[in-house]
Specification:
Length: 353
């Protein structure tokens, strides 16, 4: 019995010693277990976020007209005696296109000239004899008035003669006419058209969403519908003051240089207009991840850990994406190694090593 009791006491003492040694070891190396549980920084590749405007391309159908365009009508009725130009000819301002019979008007001008010369001679004679007292002041005033009336009659006769010629109001190209010599025309008869097509005015409709974003002087690109035709550049010159309640669009007019004379008034065009609509963060396409609650990116914080930042796609670019997100300019986002990421994970940038 004594032997068994001493053996039990020895085993108990050994157990106590082992327990004390374990506790002592724990006290000598505090935090050893916590160091073993620390997560090492994960190697990743990051890229800094930049901000840039969103480029919006608006396409519309535009209708053109000449910079100056007019349909010519005669001022008076009469018989056509001469048509001096044909369709397609270029005309200078003031050049006669159609001439009407003007024999009576020429005689009226000559008669008015004769009357004016008579009135001038009488007035001159009265002035010379005024000092002799043979001419009264009243007679002298009447003679002076007669000169003025004769001058006005001559001017009126000259205007009537000028009306017998239909002239070009500006430089341009003549359109087709159906008037031939011998035809009788009146002020309601359309003779022909004249277009100054050195510049075309292109009018197109833009959705009201872009009201305030289009400015005068903004560049546009216009192209015909024929395949292979090059684009032509234009410039916005007019913006309508109202939005149509039916179409919810407003009219914009641009001028397009046509000095090469390749385009014609009345043609329709495909109009392309590029605009900037706000500034957004731009991230590499590979940085955008998708989860159950939408798109996001892994952003590297100042303490070297990553956090999940929601991002909404605004516009896709070549190899990059504009997003609406709380990402300041210069913020680093993970582009490679995203599969291993979790909230608060420390990372190290391989590109910076």
């Amino acid at each position: 019995m004594a032997g068994r009791n001493s053996g039990l006491r020895g085993a108990s003492i050994a157990a106590v010693i082992l327990s004390m040694g374990f506790l002592s070891a724990c006290q000598q190396e505090p935090g050893a277990g916590s160091r073993e549980r620390e997560t090492p920084a994960q190697p990743v590749v990051t890229e800094a976020v930049a901000w840039q405007p969103r480029q919006v391309k608006v396409e519309a159908v535009g209708t053109s007209r000449a910079y100056k365009s007019v349909t010519l009508y005669p001022e008076v009725r009469g018989e056509v005696v001469e048509v001096s130009l044909k369709a397609g000819d270029r005309v200078k301002a003031g050049q006669a296109i159609v001439k009407l019979d003007d024999r009576d008007q020429k005689l009226a001008v000559e008669l008015a000239q004769v009357n004016l010369e008579d009135a001038k001679r009488l007035f001159s004679r009265y002035k010379r004899t005024r000092s002799s007292g043979s001419v009264t002041e009243s007679a002298l005033d009447d003679a002076r008035s007669a000169v003025e009336r004769a001058r006005l009659s001559l001017a009126r006769a000259q205007v009537a003669l000028d009306y017998r010629r239909v002239k070009a109001p500006f430089d341009g190209h003549i359109g087709i006419t159906n008037i031939d010599p011998g035809a009788r025309i009146d002020p309601s008869t359309a003779i022909t058209t004249i277009d100054d097509r050195s510049t075309l005015l292109v009018t197109f409709q833009v959705p009201e969403l872009f009201l305030g974003q289009i400015k005068e002087g903004q560049s546009i690109s216009v192209a015909t519908w024929a395949n292979g035709n090059p684009d032509h550049q234009g410039q916005v010159i007019d913006i309508d003051s109202r939005v149509s309640p039916d179409t919810r669009t407003f009219a914009v007019r641009a001028q397009v240089d046509n000095s090469a004379d390749l385009l014609r008034p009345g043609m329709s065009f495909r109009v392309t207009l590029s605009m900037e609509a706000g500034r957004y963060p731009v991230i590499p396409e590979v940085a955008l991840q998708w989860g159950n609650d939408g798109a996001f990116v892994w952003a590297v914080q100042e303490n070297g850990t990553v956090s999940r930042v929601p991002a909404t796609v605004v516009q896709r670019l070549q190899g990059a994406i504009l997003v609406e997100s709380d990402l300041p300019e210069g913020q680093s986002v993970v582009t490679e190694g995203t599969q291993r990421m979790r909230e608060g994970l420390p990372v190290t940038n391989l590109a910076g090593l």
